[in-house]
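ARCHIVE CARD
Drawer: 12
Card no.: 0347
Subject: one protein chain, sequence and derived structure
Cross-reference: see card 0346
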Amino acid sequence: MAYTIHYTYGYDDFAGQIAAKRSRSLFGQATPYIVVTGLYLLLMALQLWQSGIGAAELTTLEVIGPVLGGIPIIVMIVAVIDFMFFRLIYRLVFRRYALADTPMTVGLDDEGITWRSAEFSGQCIWAKVTGLVQTKQSLFVFLNRAEAIALPRRAMASDQEFDAIAAFAKKRIQGADQ
């Protein structure tokens, strides 16, 4: 085994994985803001169209001003909801998560990645890994669009070991693509 990492899977790993998953989406971390703002603009355009407002009136400040003025409000609402999810709802979900506060062992070698806890274990060859997301706190090895194995920096002996593991994983994934 090239590397073996031992740690307890905590809430920070769970929340980090959610953020890492979001970063892989089309607009990255801004995805919920862009999607909700887009839906707001679409609904406002439909309402204006249904009201019989023509293209000429759309350029007037009296019509477009209130619509555009609503965007910061929408962004603030999404930010509050996002905060509530990360601080409240995801914490409740985490408590029911099978790996919550569970000791984990993760191994990486030339063949792939293995993981095990008291109740679960698995393995994945590098060719099946769908991506890596590296943050300041962790490296996330994605097995599919939603599931990832967390490799937290705190489980490493040093920053150099964390960097070496990240480089090792990146090299194996790039090699598996060829």
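Annotation on reverse: The beta strands are 3-9, 102-108, 112-116, 121-125, 131-134, 138-142, 148-152. The radius of gyration is 22 Å.
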